[in-house]
Amino acid sequence: MNTSALIMMITTMTVVISITAYFFYKVLTIPPRPEPDSFSENDEEPR
Amino acid sequence: MTLQKDSWGTRVGLILAMAGNAVGLGNFLRFPVQAINNGGGAFIIPYLVCFLLMGIPLLWVEWSTGRFGGKHGHHSTPFILDNMDPKRAFWKYFGVFGIFTNVAVAAYYCYIESWTMSYVMHSIMGTFRGMSQSETADFFRSYVDVQHSTTGIPFEAIIFYILCLLLNTWILSRGLKGVEKAASIGMPLLILFGVFLAIRGVTLGTSGATEAHPNANALDGLNFLWTPQYDSLTNPKVWLAAAGQIFFTLSLGMGSIQCYASYVRSKDDIALNAVSAGFMNEFVEVVLGSCIVIPIAAGFLGIDWVKENAGFGMAFQTMPYLFQNWGPMIATVAGVMWFGLLFFAGITSSLAMGTPWMGFMRDEFKFSQKKGAWTFGAVVLAMGLPTVIFYNEGVFDEYDYWAGTVSLVVFALAESILFAWIFGMDKGWKEINQGGDIKVPLIYRFVIKYITPLLLLAVFIGSVFTPAGNNWNEAIQSLFSGNGWPLDNSSLIKMLTNAGLKEQLAAASDEQVISTLKTKIFYTNVARLLLLSLFVGISILVYIAYQKRQKRKHQQA
Prior knowledge:
By secondary structure, chain A is mainly α. Helix content of chain A is 57%, strand content 0%. Chain B contains 25 helices and no strands. The mean pLDDT of chain B is 93.
């Protein structure tokens, strides 16, 4: 591969992977809101 | 009216379902071809700019519009839009696009999905073993000709289509939980299969070179895809292609995002959820999508072949042949992974297409989940069978153009104007940020109000007035030199009049060619009539629902 293609590919992929991972990490680590929220799996009684 | 009848199980499930809705076959087949045709590595610059200025803002607009609708008990776009501007009655009929597009696209999309199901089976059965490149391509052609059977099952293409539709309907009949479960299984598997194939693609090198293709090198494919041609950045065609790709890849303008988001409560986040799902789609498209088809094809057939043949057909007509070069065992695994990946990409999108219809029928006509799902299946079957039976006559392509392309742009343009200019940015901005786990940068207030609608307008105008050969620079010069604007046959205006087919007909002298073209024009018009009937039918349902609402209002008063 030529240098410019390699730089373009690696830069783009790194940026996309990093941002995706960052947002997904945030989603997984932010504590859930108090009930009632939009999600049923953390409910004490099924809806 | 009832609120929150259905709900998502988990936040991750919701994001996976939204990402699954966005990730489709285009991520693996359309993106690399668009990149190659529009400046290689330089295409990524307008592509990412359009993602930030049109994709992300529209995701926020659609998510917040949906959540706003859900707060008022609406789970489909006709009455969500109506609720955003109650003074003007026409919005609910504009909202019909948000159901129409889903039904019409599901009708032909499920057909592609059924090909992937069938090709998984054929990969396991070893059907492609020993087939030459042309035999593999012919296999696909005979598959889509419903008169032929590749397995001995009569009307195989129709049977697989019905099976695929039944599977979709069955999952939909289980409500959001069914959709969420399918996405929670499908998306991780899709990524796993994609990573396996991408590693094979990137590490293939020159090992696939043969006597017939001695210069084949997978890295040439990556080179071709990623080498930036900066002069393309000044070409409007490239920017329109990038905007179009962002638009289609994120499933914007369909009405399915609004439907999914309508089950999110006001105090819960949408800002972070929307960007998470959007970036997951980008990961699949940019990282995985660019490392599979093009490098593998270049690795076995050479870059010159790829330049001449890059297109949608490669997925079914070329890839099964290429996998055979890896020996029977890996060929089977690769075939199952490739078509399995496409199947999961397809089904997570087609399931999203069923939910607006179900939401509408439940909200307005008190349909149960099962009844909503099965009526959706029945309408899709009625609309879809012509695309299966008359595939070669152009019904499929006609659906794809009007429902899968034009309708999306029209609807997204209308909703962006409604959100930013009629609903108002003050209320809109509040909706986007309410309950947000991230702070949306203030610049996006300006972007959503001015830039996104302008970009959408450019995409719309670009498709209405596509210049001859898609050459904008020449068309602008022609206009200023007083020679008018030469339209391409793919422009909306020329498509409407069947100009391309009529030109071919005028030039044809062979009786058989003339007859084929006349048949094609006939079926093209039949397809349009079917789509128009569907739109009118849903509009009538919206009118009846509106009358019922009015009656209820009077009774309560």
